[in-house]
Amino acid sequence: MYLLDTYARFDFGFERGNGATLFDKKGRDYIDFASGIGVNSLGHANKSIVKAIKEQSQKILHSSNLYAIKPQEKLAKAISKELGFKAFSFFCNSGAEANECAIKLARKYGATNFKEKKFEIITLKNSFHGRTLATLKLTGQDKFHPEIYAPYIEGFKFYDGIDEIIKNINEKTVAVMIELVQGEGGINALDKSEVKRLAKVLKEKKLLFITDEVQCGVYRTGEFVTSKLYGIKPDIITFAKGLGAGVPIGACACRHSVFAPGDHGSTFGGNFLATSTALAVLSELKKIKKSGKLDETIEIFNENLDALCSKFPQIFDKKEGLGLMLGLSLKDEIDISKLINLANKNRVLILKSGVKTLRFLPSLNIKKSEIKEGFKRLTKAISEYKI
Ligand code: PLP
């Protein structure tokens, strides 16, 4: 093995996929309720995405950001249109990079819009914002700030709950960044009225509201952005995961045109391949949403989770989340690793979130037959759990 030891991986030997089904080298099928941690928004080998990638690769993959890139401009316009308000986008390759861009935007805004420089960004306890040194420190969980990697970048604070955030806004604060549905720290959908209250406070103080929609954005919860479900218009929204349906792309969309040439950049970010693929992804997802299929899938998936939760009251506590970003929290005594191993054995892929939540992030176009088969396998897996 020549890999650095960063993941404890399951070795399924996946070779190909079709929709929400993966196949190993022996041709065995696995129902995929994980979609590469919310990345494969259109499942595997989606025909429109394959076509977009093929066509673009036959023309030009990359030119660098030194030259204008048409699909990048189109994608920025498409994002603004989907948001329903004017936004300026920067494209990168991952969620952490999108959040790094948000940090820089906020810092420049804080340095240029007030008499006294403002730079501090507040996040929520249990949040997750990435693995770079800055986004690790931005992440509101002490376990992500081990002394081994210190010193970290300063200027980030985190608090337990929106009320605490509001109380701790001070003269140094420039922005608050939150995930409207926390994805890694347990599936926690924030309270709508609390979020609106925070938006109001920030607006009054001319401070920035940043929503990290890396996991919960791009139709994952039923709308292009979860902020729409919450009735807010953030100043900055970050995206990644589902935007490229498997082709790496991150985006940071901002209502304020803060940067000037030289302020930020990326070699690969927003290249022809990534942005033309993301355009095809958005067009497909929009069709699924408009046809009513997305809302129908959300309903069916939720009904199945509710049924599973009621069938095993000794295992599950409650269902959490929104749209197709869902979790089942477990009773304290239940061993989550054992449950995931049983699901693996029964060939249905599910995820863990936090310490006590099973997480479900199926592709947004998952078929009814795949949902049915996946829950059949999951029911069998859970029946095999010995308390
Ligand atoms: N923000 C959120 C909410 C995430 O869920 C993640 C990844 O799980 C990130 C940021 C980091 O994204 P990436 O792994 O693409 O850098």
Report the helical percentage.
Answer: 25-40%
Overall geometric form: globular
Strand content: 15-25%
Number of helices: 12
Q: Which stretches are poorly predicted, pLDDT < 50 over at least 5 residues?
A: none
Strand order of the largest sheet: 4-12-11-10-7-5-6
- From the N-terminal CA to the C-terminal CA, the straight-line distance is 36 Å
The sequence of SSEs as H and E is EEEHHHEHEHEHEEEHEHEEHHEEHEEEH
What small molecules accompany the polymer chains?
A: pyridoxal-5'-phosphate
> C-alpha Rg, in Å?
21 Å
Average pLDDT for all residues: 98
Structural class: alpha/beta
Strand count: 17
Largest sheet: 7 strands, mixed
Structural features, described:
The protein has 387 residues and is an alpha/beta fold. It contains twelve helices and 17 strands. It has a seven-stranded mixed beta sheet, with helices on both faces. It has a four-stranded mixed beta sheet with strand order 1-2-3-15. The chain has a four-stranded antiparallel beta sheet with strand order 13-14-17-16, covered by helices on one side. The two termini are 36 Å apart. The mean pLDDT is 98. The protein binds pyridoxal-5'-phosphate. Pyridoxal-5'-phosphate binds at residues 94-96, 99, 128-130, 179, 183-184, 212, 214-215, 240.
Quickly describe the structure.
With 387 residues, the chain is of the alpha/beta class. 36% of the residues lie in helices and 19% in strands. The radius of gyration is 21 Å and the shape is globular.
